[in-house]
């Protein structure tokens, strides 16, 4: 779908979207349509008990006094309190309501609002961004007959009309680049594992070279020389070769230390010898969610020419049971030299991250490092799908991530770390074991494991995105399915805190 920006004005035909503020206060465009219909719109709002609450929608067929086919009314809430994320959600809600009309083009008539917390140009850009994010569909494997039966959305153009069309277009440009990164991540997270294995994923990353990203792929031969046996142990049961991919974007000051993002890329997780139950195992195609986020983030940063030095690193493996699979009780030596007793082969993501974290620090010496992983079911028990779990050794980084999470709607919640939890991964025969004692505090002991691989007090944060990577229901700017949670959060983090 294409997002356009135009000068104010209402078309004579088709579908138009207008806003209504809290307490059923009509905007200028809504009032003009209400006047044309001798108050018909006001009566419709009253009958539907539509009060203008943010994201509330109402569709009016063949609105009186006009030649329009449909009028979609969307609640704007209190504009004085609406931040950019609120306008994105309004855009997503407007698109969701308008797409049901099956029109090719829809227009959102946006009026300037006195006392609004953001400018009209920014609001227009964010409406377009929200609508674009909500329009995503993964229909690659749907046949033409199925698409016709399911009434594939026909909206090809979503126009936001206002008095500041040019300014809105300029404000939207970097958001459009971010949307491309979000869509790349959602595509990767949605692909079935028979299509997207480690090597295929690595090839997708190499496509970023056309944007100016330097991409390096390490195969098993290179990783063995580096001593990355923790990662290699996870993938040894699969016929597919494990990979590590390094993506470098140097848009900042030459020689300045980069910020590093590390992603878990388990392209399919059976649990290995500690086999998962069959029910729901199909979801494990998106156990590479963290790697997908890092890849989409690098696309977004390169597309908008971010003035920062950033390196994205992902460890790509497939965790399968076979005659060559890793066993419970095995001991592996990580790249850092620390030894790990593998108690549970289904606690594999931390083994992958351990070696990639070490590589990131020793080869790139980052000023800060953030890893993302669909790491534990325990974080879903703790936080559900509303927040990602955040574990960090830096109060400053925690504050930055929390604030950006609130601003983007990709929210994180800080969880504890401490010596008492660290003792739970003490091994009798190795430096550590890969799980704690029992199920209690599972997401915390996983984070403690990762913390052992952070060197020289490098500011570090681990985001456990197991509960936020996939949604089983439509959200304001995220349709059911892969969410790409983290791309917008981390893009904004880089924009505010790491760009020169």
From TrEMBL:
SUPFAM superfamilies named in the record: Macro domain-like, Zn-dependent exopeptidases
Principal location: cytoplasm
List where in the cell it is found.
Answer: Cytoplasm
Q: Is RNA-binding among this UniProt entry's keywords?
A: no
Q: Where does Mn(2+) 1 bind?
A: 269, 346, 348
The Cytosol aminopeptidase domain covers which part of the protein? 344-351
Q: Which coenzyme or cofactor does it need?
A: Mn(2+)
Question: Pfam families attached here?
Answer: Peptidase_M17, Peptidase_M17_N
Q: What class of enzyme is it?
A: hydrolase
The UniProt record lists the EC number as 3.4.11.1, 3.4.11.10
Q: Which GO terms describe its molecular function?
A: manganese ion binding; metalloaminopeptidase activity
Name this protein carries in UniProt = Probable cytosol aminopeptidase
**What organism is listed for this UniProt entry?**
Novispirillum itersonii (Aquaspirillum itersonii)
Underlying gene? pepA
